[in-house]
C-alpha cells in the first residue's frame, strides 16, 4: 500500500520520493492529499460535463490556478459562477 500511495504522490502531484516517504511519518496527512485530489477531480469532471467539446484541459488548469490556493469549494464557486459558500 505504501508503494502505491508513494507512486501516486510522486506521479500525480510531482513530489520527490523522499517527500512521499515522509508523508508516512504522519499518517493523518495522507487522507488530506487524497481528499483534495477527489475534490479537484470532481470539479474537473463537472466542468468537462458542462463545457462539453469546448473543454480544454490546459485552459481548465490555467483558470483553476489563477485563483491561487484557496480551498476547492471556493475555486469551484468561482469557476462555476456560483455563490461563494459562507464560512462555517
Write the layout of secondary structure elements.
Elements: H1 2-12, H2 17-22, H3 29-51, H4 57-65, H5 72-79
Helix pairs in contact: 3-5
- Give, in order, the helices and strands: HHHHH
The total domain count is 1
Overall shape: globular
Radius of gyration, in Å, reads 15 Å
Low-confidence stretches: none
How much beta, percentage-wise? under 5%
Report, as a whole number of angstroms, the end-to-end distance: 35 Å
Helix-strand category:
mainly alpha
Please give the largest β-sheet. Answer: none
Helical fraction: 55-70%
- Tell how many strands the DSSP assignment holds: 0
Average predicted confidence as pLDDT: 81
Count the helices. How many? 5
What distinguishing features does this structure have?
single chain, 88 residues, mainly alpha, 5 helices, 65% helix, globular
Give your account of this protein's structure.
It is globular, with a radius of gyration of 15 Å. It has one domain (2-79). Helix 3 packs parallel to helix 5 (72-79). The mean pLDDT is 81. 5% of the residues are buried. The termini are far apart. By secondary structure, it is mainly alpha-helical. Helix content is 65%, strand content 0%. The chain contains 5 helices and no strands.
